[in-house]
Amino acid sequence: MREMKRAVHIDFHTMPGIYNFNQNWDPQEFANILKAANVKYINAFAKCNLGFAYYPTQIGIPYPGMKGDMFGDLLHECHKNDIGVTAYFNVGLDHEHARLHRDWCVQNKEGQIIYGDKTANFFRNMCYKHSGYRKYILGMIQEVIDNYDIDGLFLDCMGVFPCYGNECQEDMVKQGMDPFSDDQVRLHTEEVLMEFSRDVKKMLGEDRYLKLNGMPYNKVKDLNTHIEIECLPGRWGYDYFGAQAAYARNIQKKVLYMTGRFQNSWGDFGGLKSKASLENDMWDALSNGVDVSIGDHMHPAENLDPSVYEMVGKIFSDIKEYEPWTDGAKYVADIGVLTDPKGFLDDTYKGLNRMLGELKYSYDILSEDMDLSKYKVLILPDNMKVTPVLKKKLEKHLSENKGILSTGEGGLNPEKTGFAMEQWKFKYEGLDQSNSSYFRMRKDNCDDIGNMRWAMYSHGILMSSTEESETIAEYIKPYFNRHWDGFHGYYYTPPEKATGQAAISRSGNVHHICFKVFDAYYNTAMISHKGIVKYCLERLLKEPVLKCKSIPSTARLTLTEKEKTVQLHVKATFPEVRGKMNIIEEHQVIPSGAEVSVKGNYKNAYLVPGKEQVSIVQNDDYTVVNLPEVVGYAMIALEK
User: Fold this and answer.
1) Angle at Cα 325 formed by Cα 541 and Cα 611, nearest 5°?
2) How would residue 342 be classed by pLDDT, with cut points 50, 70 and 90?
3) If you average pLDDT over residues 588-606, what whole number do you get?
4) φ, ψ for residue 555, nearest 5 deg
5) Residue 477's beta-bridge partner residues?
6) How confident is the model at residue 477 (pLDDT cuts 50, 70, 90)?
7) What are the Cα distances from residue 261, in Å, to 22, 265, 299, 357, 575?
8) Residue 234 — pLDDT band, cuts 50, 70, 90?
9) Residues near 146 by Cβ (< 8 Å), separated by ≥ 6?
């Protein structure tokens, strides 16, 4: 397999009626543009989401009027220039065949096959169980595998859209499943997708790349060869990628950040982000120990846009210079954050990513089937219940005198009838039915919080401290919940009094915050919520891998490690809210003189890639790095 790095994902979804389709397209020019832009790998179009093929298929529908073999010619020219090519198939969408074969479509619970925004993409979806569609799409994939020397397959839009169609319902009955149960219907659809994915893996073999896009990372970890995190910050938001990377890098060795050049979203032909914006995304990838990919959409009658690839070329030129320090580098994490084995990272994890990033704590996201032993602290956030499998690992963790922070319903048993482990020596008093409660610190050494009664905003459980635990913050009830009583809408809900219950309590090396603090932070960004997490983590993690002085909360600091060096990544740039968009137009600056203390003793430090020396001082178990001025981003290598 050719090395997948400095990648470009080329969308090519073409509506019917382009009268001059591929008129000005030239495969040599296509490959030359990519080579000049320092591109080493592409995902390229074999079949788009409209259902058209871009090679002379004997099974599917070539785009009407297409001249030549676009996919075959670009593959040949790219390979001549040592550029790897994965064949892109949209398997979840095929609108041309969906209109011709209505029985090949997913049927929703209301009996519809067309629903939602019909000017978008997902208004009808394909059912992989139906023998007609399954035979057709597997046939096209086999056709490309047989006829082209592809480096891999990228199968797109593999979302789980529960199908209530006749064939799926009959198959459920045959298997003894309940077709009237929505959970069982979803489970059946998931297994149909897994069957299809396993068939594709057998067809492709073990020596080529496979990416099943839309399937949960953990579920297809034995089928995927790598993970590409699709994230256009203008659509997904800037808090999405960090949590996804923290999870993905513990599932597959090869992970890419697939951002895009678009201002708005995929298919935005006239949108181009600023160079600073794309650089920010690339730096986010390097800082998280993953590789880089930029999404593009090629014009149906023309070639790649030179303006786009002039920018891509400049950025990838810089990335290339970093590679001696980034290739194969591993992210260094103090904290392990638990997630459900299904691996769906909701707003809780976006809030956690933002908060821990602002606090400069390094973390990985893990499920219970992974190794938790290397982490100094574990976090069970907001909704993370404790299964018997996880319980054994947490007991071992605590027996080694390591710490745990749980929040909201985190730490409860799956039935939510109590804490799952005896080490949580708090009295569980049920789920919190309030929607307007408050907390107040009892300790006076929590910066930026003081004695104010702070709103929770996202509620969790009720609990009290016992003789074996101490209350760090008290729970304060409101006069009323927010509600309507038939006469008044109770919008104003001031705090009334303490109840004797705990909002935050500590028992040995276990700290518990009673409300869903990470969900609350994602939705409200209240400084006191960050303050209480910082308070707990400072006591659970006394020697983190990074300590900072004069670094703003908007900056992001991480470490990655190679055999002989550790790389300190300092990113000053961050997005600004402009109307409805988060925009990066220019780079922010951290003035010289800021300090970062890195755990461990290092003999030398220099800026990458130019190797300009950076001043360091040893201070007990830390190496103190005196930062030069940082404009946007700096990578500093510390020699072991």
Assistant:
1) 100
2) confident
3) 97
4) -80, 160
5) 497
6) very high
7) 22, 9, 14, 25, 16
8) confident
9) none
Q: Which two tokens mark 628?
A: 């030069």
3-state SS of 431-454 is ECCCCCCEEEECCCCCCCCCCCCE
- The token duo for 271 is 């949108």
Which tokens hold the place of 328?
Answer: 């194969």
pLDDT at 449: 86
| Residues near 416 by beta carbon (within 8 Å), at least 6 away in sequence | 385, 409, 431
**C-alpha distances out from residue 91 to 51, 63, 141, 159, Å:** 9, 17, 10, 10
Find the helix packing angle between 182-204 and 166-174, rounded to 10°: 90
CB atoms under 10 Å from CB of 461, counted, come to: 25
Q: 190 φ, ψ to 5°? A: -60, -45
Between 74 and 344, the more confident residue is 74
At residue 202, the 3 state secondary structure works out as: helix
Token couple for 402: 């390591």
- Tokens for 105, please give them: 């479509």
Q: What is the pLDDT of residue 445?
A: 65
Rounded mean pLDDT, 198-219: 96
Q: Distance between CA atoms of 224 and 218, rounded to whole angstroms? A: 10
Say how far apart CA 133 and CA 167 lie, in whole Å: 12
Mean pLDDT of 353-368: 98
Q: CA–CA separation, 29 vs 32, rounded Å?
A: 5
pLDDT higher than threshold 70 for residue 11: yes
CB contact at 8 A, 348 and 522: yes
For 518, left (φ over 0), alpha (ψ -120 to 50), or beta?
Answer: alpha
| Coil/strand/helix, residue 349 | helix
Question: CA 155, CA 304: separation in Å to the nearest integer?
Answer: 22
**Cα separation, 609 vs 113, whole angstroms:** 54
Q: Which pLDDT belongs to residue 341?
A: 86
Q: What's the token pair of residue 572?
A: 């000053």
Ranges of beta strands (E only) in 272-357 are: 291-297, 330-331, 335-338
Interstrand relation of 495-507 and 604-608 (parallel, antiparallel or unpaired): unpaired
Is the CB of residue 116 less than 8 Å from the CB of residue 74? no
Q: DSSP labels for 453-485?
A: -EE-SS--EEEEE-TTSEEEEEEEEESS-S-B-
Q: What angle do CA 363, 366, 371 make, to 5 degrees?
A: 100
CA 509 to chain centre: 30
Spatial contact of 257 and 293, defined as CB atoms under 8 Å apart: yes
Distance CA 242, CA 49 (A): 28
pLDDT at position 344: 87
Helix 347-359 and helix 517-524, axial crossing angle in degrees, nearest 10: 80
* pLDDT 10s digits, 39-80: 999 999 999 999 999 999 999 999 999 999 999 999 999 999
Query: What pLDDT digit, counting tens, does each position of 88-111 carry?
Result: 999 999 999 999 999 999 999 999
